[in-house]
Amino acid sequence: MALIELKNINYCYSPGTAFEKHALRDVSMAVDAGESVGLIGHTGSGKSTLIRHFNGLLRPNSGQVVYQGNDLWKKPNEIRSIRFQIGLVFQYPEAQIFEDTVGKDIAYGPRNMGIGQEEMNARIRESLQCVGLDNSYLERNPFRLSGGEMRRVAIAGVLAMRPKVLILDEPAAGLDPEGRHALFDALRHYRRKSGAAVVLVSHSMEDIADFVDRVVVLDQGSVALDGPVASIFAQAEKLVSIGLDIPQSTKVLLGLKAKGYSVKTEAYTVEQAEQELLRFLKEADRP
Amino acid sequence: MTRDLTVGQFIPGHSLMHRLDPRTKLMLTFLFIIQVFLTKSALSLIFLLLLLWIYIVCAQVPARKVFRAVRPIIPVIIVTALLNIFYVSGHVLWHYAFLRITDQGLFTGFTLLVRLITLIAGCSLITYTTSLNALASGLEQLLAPLKRLHFPVSELSMTLSITLRFLPTLAEELDRIIEAQKARGAQFATGTILNRIRAFFPVILPLFMSAFRRAFELTNAIECRCYHGGEGRTKLHPLKLGRRDYAAVIFFLAAFAMTLIFNSIRQPF
């Protein structure tokens, strides 16, 4: 059984007015425990609307959100307790920081859960360490940190709730390569340690290829494709036709193949492409 | 929640009212307000309603939208009308204990009701048919004579248009922050009043931070373009009064005079 499942979700903004917009049409997708899923789609394809359904920030007009076998909207009063288990990190999450020390800000989520002081301290330290910051940050003013550090503090604030599903909307947007690496390392670390499922929304095909096992492609509010990374990026033409891109390394291999070289194109990360090219060169050298 | 603030928002269009100069519209709105308050007799009330209908048709704004603008203040209107019904002296129609209703009171209450609704509906037309930028530049030109008195007219109009421009942006930002804190378990609608107020700190503080950040960025952007106040600035689309505007002014003045005439004709009330 899937950990969280969306069944035939429909959602419409401002129904019955001139601003009516049908954002999601009959969207179904499921995420298993420990899985990492990428959610990609053109701007305005409904990604941001979709992730707000995972933790009950938006209520679907029709369809069900099922978490651990229970319909989320059967007991709307208990949605708040579900939100502690389904962590949602919005775009530019550093905009949500409000406390004067890093420690206090990370504590906001756990405190809302009603967690005791001792466990709270443990959780704060743990999530801070998880995002690669040491304890010296605890008493620092978050507004004096660098952009990348602020981002990681904000994400630590969600990790401290120890969510079983972690959803991130463009977590690496605007970060330098170093910050991006640190961030994805932190996410991998959290996933390995807690066994949580991670849903990653991103425009960067490189990030998707690096981090996830499965990809769901949204196009104009419906699921266009859903499958393992390999099978999705193999459909380069279809991706391009709905305004998306493929990883640079895949592009290189596809280009070579189009020129008549017999390389395999199932490589999505730089490492895989490097191996494939080395293999090809070795074989080409042989008479 | 903040998304529902569509009342009074500019609706792009090409109606007669849309094409009037914003200065004309501002002055005529002012004239219309005076006219509404001078309306006294039954005949001029009917005339006022007819005028409102003409203006709505000229603006090509759905009547439903215009009356939606009135909705929020309906309770105020009803209370005011009721008070008038009971407090105006005249021929007594009905009484109970200290309450009495007079014919004059009924009429005054009804007049007030119609006048207030017409007032709000009429004023909403200008915001429905004029973009905020046009309003701001119209206001700037109307106030231009005050420059002689060293009143910072163009700075004021710049401030006004920046404020109006950023209202929807901040509303959107507010929505986003509320959602982010909800995702961390914030709850706003439960608990004691003190707790509810406290629950808003995690929203208000980030909102202020981002408003300040935006303000500094905007200041830089404005300085980079060498903005130095209104001195010697010209406009890309200078406002120009057309034949249409003069016609509108004449129509409004005629309507104003008609109200005065209808007021003075002898009628039962």
UniProtKB/TrEMBL annotation, chain A:
**What organism does this protein naturally occur in?**
Sporolactobacillus inulinus CASD
Boundaries of every ABC transporter domain copy: 4-245
Output the superkingdom of the source species: Bacteria
Record's CDD domains? Answer: ABC_cobalt_CbiO_domain1
Which EC number(s) does the record attach to this protein? 7.-.-.-
Q: What is its main location?
A: membrane
Q: What protein am I looking at?
A: Energy-coupling factor transporter ATP-binding protein EcfA2
Q: Which PANTHER family match?
A: ENERGY-COUPLING FACTOR TRANSPORTER ATP-BINDING PROTEIN ECFA2, HEAVY METAL TRANSPORTER
Q: Would the keyword Nucleotide-binding be found if you checked this record's keyword annotation? A: yes
NCBIfam families, per the entry: ECF_ATPase_2
Top EC class, one word = translocase
Name the family the entry cites: Belongs to the ABC transporter superfamily. Energy-coupling factor EcfA family.
- Kindly list the GO molecular function terms attached to this UniProt entry: ATP binding; ATP hydrolysis activity; ATPase-coupled transmembrane transporter activity; cobalt ion transmembrane transporter activity
One cellular-component annotation, GO? ATP-binding cassette (ABC) transporter complex
Q: What does it do?
A: ATP-binding (A) component of a common energy-coupling factor (ECF) ABC-transporter complex.
Assembly with partners or alone: Forms a stable energy-coupling factor (ECF) transporter complex composed of 2 membrane-embedded substrate-binding proteins (S component), 2 ATP-binding proteins (A component) and 2 transmembrane proteins (T component).
Q: Which Gene3D superfamilies match?
A: P-loop containing nucleotide triphosphate hydrolases
Alphabetically list the UniProt keywords.
Answer: ATP-binding, Cell membrane, Membrane, Nucleotide-binding, Translocase, Transport
Where does the UniProt annotation locate this protein? Cell membrane
This protein's membrane topology, according to the annotation, is: Peripheral membrane protein
From TrEMBL, chain B:
Q: How does it sit in the membrane?
A: Multi-pass membrane protein
Q: Quote a single Gene Ontology cellular component term.
A: plasma membrane
Q: Does the keyword Secreted apply?
A: no
Asked if the Swiss-Prot or TrEMBL record annotates the protein with the keyword Membrane, the reply is yes
Its chief place of residence is: membrane
The record's subcellular locations are: Membrane
InterPro entries in the record: ABC/ECF_trnsptr_transmembrane (IPR003339), ECF_transporter_component (IPR051611)
Q: Where are the transmembrane segments?
A: 26-53, 73-94, 106-129, 246-265
**Record's keyword terms, sorted:** Cell membrane, Membrane, Transmembrane, Transmembrane helix
Q: Which PANTHER family match?
A: SLL0384 PROTEIN (PTHR34857:SF2)
Q: What is this protein called in UniProt?
A: Transporter
Source organism of this protein record: Sporolactobacillus inulinus CASD
**Species lineage, top-down?**
Bacteria, Bacillati, Bacillota, Bacilli, Bacillales
